[in-house]
Design goal:
Layout: E1 10-12, E2 15-17, H1 23-38, H2 60-63, H3 72-97, E3 106-109, H4 135-138, E4 142-145, H5 165-173, H6 189-192, E5 203-208, E6 211-216, E7 219-224, E8 227-232, H7 248-262
Helix pairs in contact: 1-3
Family: Belongs to the sulfatase family.
Organism: marine sediment metagenome
Domain Sulfatase N-terminal: 14-175
């Protein structure tokens, strides 16, 4: 609808275009077309849907699925989610149509928790949501599907990261990465299958402007400007009890880990 320069222009390679179809449907359509054209050879499809995301809008086709929801914003949100479900289903159906289900790794992952500022979303029992480094903002779904490699209904509860996606994909398809490549991510396959015990990551870090977070075992440190929070996620997944004052040694330990990690980061140009 009336695309504005720089904000809603859609590009095909280097050329802008105006897409008349609902964008979630259009992205699915293009992905299915790509699979149809490339199914006879190995392919990689990165499909970054912009749904569910503001602006909260949906077509009547999907809104009509929720006739009993009186709140229009909620109805739009539910409709967008339903559209995304259809879109993912269309892509999976294309994979199945070409007989590729048994040797195609499908990954579904989100980039952040739901934005509570929309007034229609909740990440409960997790704290807050998008824009925050509490669990409601950073604990998201990561789903793998590959028959024969990942058994159905398998759950893995240890902390992972999207940094692990690339090495996991390489591991699944049998690509041995050069030893000189020092990646932050790891191949999750042996961990999920129980062939390797322990944690994929001793420590995970987040940094977003003045906000930082450190996850080390069950402990999680969050800092924003002059505020400090410390939580034990094993007993407090909702991050309701701040232990920073009662556990200063843990705070110091996690701060030290963060500064050591940060010292290796290269400032953006």
């Amino acid at each position: 609808k009336n695309p504005q320069p720089f904000h809603s222009t859609i590009m095909r390679d280097t050329s802008p275009l105006i897409e008349p179809e609902y964008l979630t449907d259009a992205i699915a359509r293009e992905t299915v077309t790509f699979i149809d054209a490339n199914h006879k050879k190995p392919f990689f499809a990165y499909v970054p849907f912009n749904a569910v995301h503001t602006p909260i809008e949906a077509t009547e086709k999907y809104q009509d699925r929720f006739p009993n929801e009186p709140n229009q914003t909620k109805r739009d949100y539910y409709a967008m989610t339903s559209a995304l479900d259809d879109a993912v289903g269309a892509i999976v159906a294309a994979i199945n149509k070409h007989g590729l289900a048994d040797n195609t790794l499908v990954i579904f992952v989100n980039d952040n928790g739901g934005p509570i500022y929309t007034g229609v979303q909740s990440n409960g029992p997790l704290k807050l949501g998008k824009l925050f480094l509490f669990e409601g903002g950073i604990r998201v779904p990561m789903v793998f599907k590959l028959p024969g490699t990942f058994e159905p209904n398998t759950e893995y509860d240890e902390p992972t990261s999207t940094l692990d996606l690339f090495p996991t994909m390489c591991g699944v398809v049998g690509i041995e990465l050069p030893a000189e490549i020092n990646l932050d991510g790891v191949d999750l396959t042996p961990f999920i299958k129980g062939k390797i015990s322990g944690l994929p990551h001793d420590t995970l870090f987040w940094s977003n402007g003045p906000n930082i977070a450190v996850r080390h075992g069950d402990w999680k440190l969050v800092k924003s400007y002059d505020s400090t929070w410390l939580f034990n996620l094993a007993s407090d997944i909702g991050e309701s009890k701040n232990l920073a004052k009662s556990e200063p040694e843990i705070v110091e330990q996690l701060e030290s880990l963060y500064h050591k990690w940060r010292s290796h980061m290269v400032e953006p140009a």
